[in-house]
Amino acid sequence: MARMKGAQHFRQRLVLSTLSNTALRIDDIRADSEAPGLCDFEASLLRLVEKISNGCGIEINETGTKLRYKPGILAGGRNLVHDCGTGRGIGYFLEPLIILGLFGKKPLSITLRGITNDSRDPCVDTFRTATLPMLKHFGVPIEGLELKVVARGAPPLGGGEVVLKVPIVPKSLTAATWVDEGMVKRIRGVSYSTRVSPHMANRMVDAARGVLNRLLPDVYIFTDHYTGSESGKSPGYGISLVAETTTGCILSSECVAMHSGASELQLPEDLGTQAAMSLLQEIRLGGVVDSTHQGLLFILCALCPEDVSKVRVGKLSSYGIKMLQHIKEFLGVQFSIKPDPATGTVLLTCVGSGFQNLYRKVS
C-alpha cells in the first residue's frame, strides 16, 4: 500500500495507483484548512473512476481528511454520463479519463457535463487539437479517439457538455523516440463566445493575428459562437491556439475571460494578445510538447513496453517534476534527465515498465 499525505497532485496519485494496482492511503487532506477534507471536484473524480471500473473500494472518514482507495478492474463502457460540477473545468477530468480509458476492458464512451473552458485547467479545445494527436506517437489507434463539444459552459455556472471516446490499446503502447521539435509551419486556433456578442470572438482573433502575422503568414483562427441551449448558463469567451511544427509536434496556449474587479470580463483584445504571447513563449522554451502536457508525456513513456523511450521538453514544469517522482514510486520507472545547453531544453530517457492491457477481452 502506498501511503501519502496532503491533497496536492491528487489526480496523479489516483491514476498511477489504479494503473499499477496499488492500494492507496492519503492522510491529512487539508487537515489545517478552514474547509478540511476532500473538495467536491476530488470526490467527483473518485465517483468517475468508480464508474469506469469494477470492484474498486473507496473509504473516506467523516471529515474527509483520510482516504483509502483500492483499485478495481478498468472496465470502460459505453454511453456513460458524469456531471463534473462547477468546482473545476471538464479538463481536470479528461486527462485521467484518457489515460485510464486506453487500458480498459472495452472502449470508453462518456458524456461529461460542467465547465468546458476555465483558466485553471486545459480547455476542451486544447484537448481536442493538442492532447489527442499526441497519443498517436505512442501507437494509440487514432480512429476511435474523439472529443466532441456539444455545448459550451463558461464559469461560474457551467452548463457545457462534451462527449469523449477513447479506444483501448490492443496490447501495449509503443515506445517513442521523440526528440526533433522541428520549425513552426502553421498556427491554428479557436476563438469562442457564449451568451455575448459574436463580435467578441472576432476581436480576439484580430488581436492574436496582430501578434502572430508578423512572424508567419499561415495563421488561421476559427470563430465559434454559441447561442441558445448550446451556450451554457454563463456568458464568457476565450481563445485557444496551437502551433504545428514541421515534424508534427503541437504546442498549445489558451486564454479565458476572467472577471476582473467589478464583475467585468477582461477585454477580448487583451485575451487575444495574451494567448499569442504565451504561445510564443512555449515555442521559445522548445520541446516536443508544451508545459501543460509534460505530465501526460512522462506517464505515456513510463507505460511503454520494456524498451527505451526518449523525449525532449522545454523547462520542466513543477507538475512534470511531481509526475516523475510519482511514476518512480508507483511504476518503478526512473528517468535519466540530461539538460541540452545548446538549445536550453531537457532530454529525458527511460525504459518503460512493460505495462500491458491485461483487462481487454481476448477474442
Structural write-up:
The protein is an alpha+beta fold. It has eight helices and 20 strands. The chain has helices spanning 10-20, 40-51, 91-102, 124-134, 199-212, 268-285, 294-302, 318-331, and strands at 2-5, 24-27, 53-54, 57-60, 67-70, 73-74, 77-83, 108-114, 146-151, 160-166, 177-178, 184-194, 219-226, 236-245, 250-256, 259-260, 264-265, 308-313, 336-340, 345-351. The protein has a four-stranded mixed beta sheet with strand order 1-2-5-4, covered by helices on one side. A four-stranded mixed beta sheet has the order 7-8-10-9. β9 (146-151) and β10 (160-166) form a beta hairpin. α5 runs parallel beside α6. The protein starts with a strand and ends in a 12-residue tail after the last strand.
Describe what is shown at a glance.
Helix content is 28%, strand content 29%. It has 363 residues and is of the alpha+beta class.
Write a concise keyword list for the protein shown above.
about 375 residues; alpha+beta; 8 helices; globular
Structural class: alpha+beta
Computed Rg: 20 Å
What would you call the shape?
globular
Q: How helical, in percent, are the residues?
A: 25-40%
Q: Which secondary structure elements does this structure contain, and how are they paired or packed?
A:
Blueprint (H helix, E strand, L loop, with lengths): L1 E4 L4 H11 L3 E4 L12 H12 L1 E2 L2 E4 L6 E4 L2 E2 L2 E7 L7 H12 L5 E7 L9 H11 L11 E6 L8 E7 L10 E2 L5 E11 L4 H14 L6 E8 L9 E10 L4 E7 L2 E2 L3 E2 L2 H18 L8 H9 L5 E6 L4 H14 L4 E5 L4 E7 L12
Parallel strand pairs: 1-2, 7-8, 11-18, 12-13
Antiparallel strand pairs: 2-5, 3-6, 4-5, 8-10, 9-10, 12-14, 14-15, 16-17, 18-20, 19-20
Helix pairs in contact: 1-3, 1-8, 5-6, 7-8
